[in-house]
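Our collaborator T.R. sent over the components below with a one-line note: 'Predict the complex.' Nothing else. No constraints on interfaces, no templates requested, no preferences about which chain binds where. So this is a plain run: every listed entity goes in together, and whatever single assembly comes back becomes the starting point for the next discussion.
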Amino acid sequence: DAKTTQPPSMDCAEGRAANLPCNHSTISGNEYVYWYRQIHSQGPQYIIHGLKNNETNEMASLIITEDRKSSTLILPHASLRDTAVYYCIVKVYAGNNRKLIWGLGTSLAVNP
Amino acid sequence: DTAVSQTPKYLVTQMGNDKSIKCEQNLGHDTMYWYKQDSKKFLKIMFSYNNKELIINETVPNRFSPKSPDKAHLNLHINSLELGDSAVYFCASSQDGPGGYTFGSGTRLTVV
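Returned assembly:
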C-alpha cells in the first residue's frame, strides 16, 4: 500500500475552513484515499473516502488532484468539536484484505 | 444504540493474569477487526475476521487469541498478560466493499 505524508499539526480558527493536505505520490490506480479522525480518547471515526473524483458528504469534502498524488480534506466551517487527529490512508480494496496502515496523522487544533 | 460496543471500557490487571475483551456490532457488517493503539498513538491491526473466518493475523504473540462465535461478535482473549500489553484496544467492523470502518470506543488495558 502507498505511503502517505501529512503535516504533524495545524491550527484553524473556529468558523473558518480547515484544509488538511495529504501527499500520496506513490498511489496506484486502484487505491482509495480514506480519511478518518480521532478525537481525544475516542475511537477513530470514518469521515470520507474517494478514488478519483472529488467527494462530499455531511462531514467534509475530499479533493483529489488529477494525478491522484495528493488530496485535501476540507472541513468547511470548523468548530471546536473538530479538534482531533486526522488520518489520511490509501488502501487497495481487494476482497477481504482491508488492512489499513495508519500513520501519525495531523493534529488539528480549532481555536476560538 | 451503539453500533460497535466494547466491554469493558477500562481494565486494570496484574501481570500473568488472563483477561478477555468483548466486542459486538449491530450494523450487520461482514468483517470485524481488532486494533491496538500504543502510547505513541500508532494504530496497528491485530486480527480481522470475515463471517467468522480469520482473514488477517498480524505478528501478534500467540497469547492473544481472537474468538468469533458469530459474525456480530469478535472477542479478544489475552493469556499471561505482560506490562507491554498495556494499550488501548479498538474493535471495528466494516461492510463488504470499499467503505469505511466503524470503530468502538476502545478498551484501555493497564497491566501492573
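Summary for T.R.: The radius of gyration of chain A is 13 Å.
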